[in-house]
Write a structure and sequence with these properties.
This protein has helices at 50-53, 56-63, 71-79, 143-151, 168-178, 198-207; strands spanning 2-8, 11-16, 19-23, 40-44, 67-70, 84-87, 92-95, 98-104, 121-127, 130-134, 155-159, 182-186, 211-212, 227-229. By secondary structure, the protein is α/β, with parallel strands linked by helices. A hairpin with a 2-residue loop joins β1 (2-8) and β2. Bound molecules: zinc ion (ZN).
Length: 231
Amino acid sequence: MVDIKYIGHSAFEFKTGDKSIIVDPYVSKNEKYNYKKSNIVDIFVTHGHSDHLGEAIEISKDKKAPITAIAEVATYCSGKKCKTRSVGLGSWLYYDWGRAIFLPAYHSSTLPDGSYGGVAASIIFDIEGVRIFHAGDTCLHSELKTYKELYRPNIALLPIGGTYTMDVEHAVVAADWLGAKTVIPMHYNTFPEIQADLQRFAQLMQVNNTNCAILNPEQIDQDEKSVKSAK
Ligand SMILES: [Zn+2]
């Protein structure tokens, strides 16, 4: 059983038992969310942009939780005195709560100091047999079809805001290619450039027979609004 909470933008908390894993923790955008209440044991960052690195460094130091990220991002974080796990694309990484794999995302990655952040990533999490695909920032690409075959994701977290990533129409295709039963939209409406028509997304997903879970970060403290996923 994994409890998925949407913090906002591309930030999510996955809770399994008494442990939490946090991804792209741009938590300062959501005043209703207090990371201090969660037992965060691992932090994942898809790429170095500030809307994804977010408050990872502060949380890592506070919780003594390592940041797993692509080598260049990990090196930046170790330079800020954080525990890190430096990784590349393409292999399962094992943790006491499950495993994760970094896969290519079509996007850039620059760190807050302007240095190169390496390749941008999508990440698949396998937590108690539930496979969650976090797309990071990416356009639609045909490798997503192979992810269905290789990883069989149950839940896909997809950007829909456009401009910097895939948009509503492309996210609908991505959902189909990934074959996930549930899709949670992310990376929309945070800035004027990434406004998205959520209703249209929900309608198109309905046509595709895919469960579209629109989570409201404003209601993050209400447990029933998170997605509970059984194996
Ligand atoms: Zn972004």
